[in-house]
Amino acid sequence: MLWFSKVTSLLNQSQSTETQVFQFLDQVILAHHKFVRLWQIYLNQGANCREFDDTLAELQAVESEADKLRREIDTRLYARTLIPDLRSDVALLIELIDKLMNQQETVGVHLKVEQPLIPEEVHDDLQELLQLVGQTIDHTLLCARSFLTDLQRVQEYHQKVILFESDANKVCTRAKMTLFSTDLPLTNKVQLRYFFDRIDDVANVAEDISDRVSVFTLKRMQ
Questions:
Q1: Which is nearest to 195 in space by CA: 119, 84, 86?
Q2: Among 10, 31, 39, 175, whose Cα sits 20 to 30 Å from the Cα of 17?
Q3: What residues contact 207, with CB distance under 8 A and at least 6 apart?
Q4: pLDDT digits (tens, 9 = 90+) for 22-65
Q5: Could you tell me if 19 and 131 are in contact, meaning their C-beta atoms sit under 8 angstroms apart?
Q6: How far apart are CA 88 and CA 15, in angstroms?
């Protein structure tokens, strides 16, 4: 518990730093909401509509705002934090979480550019995959918040991340098997497989972050 008291003291050295860290995590939730909405619009209306373009622009704006927050947090951490080891871990955590949003933005742009054909047979699997990726992200963020505020709950959230990520992998595999059983031309199947894999990769990145947070926590609780 000694280390926990140090973390609390660290964050309390700058209320604005603490606020910015949690604002940054909130941006991740917002980005995934925009990402899911983008796919819903695509399935119903395609990519050549105002709503799709607006939602993609909003996703990019969220990612851009998160980038600004990340740079400000980095500056504050290195200027004000007195515990180098913790400072390094928090900075790395922020950097890794930023990759979640970068990946979703990249997939969104590719969706607009490539506009893959999506057969009706895989719609349900695609939406279930997006839901599971969202649950993986949500619990990864809970894991990250707990690392900063309540170490005792980190492992609980870490285990949930592992379970949701595993389920996402299974649904992704099922979706690809269904996809390749359809009459869609092979080139279209391969193109759509890319999107399934990139969506599933978001869950993989989230699990990697959760793994790292677990290590950060364990090394301080020994």
A1: 119
A2: 31
A3: 136, 140, 161, 162, 165
A4: 899 999 999 999 999 999 999 999 999 999 999 999 999 999 99
A5: no
A6: 19
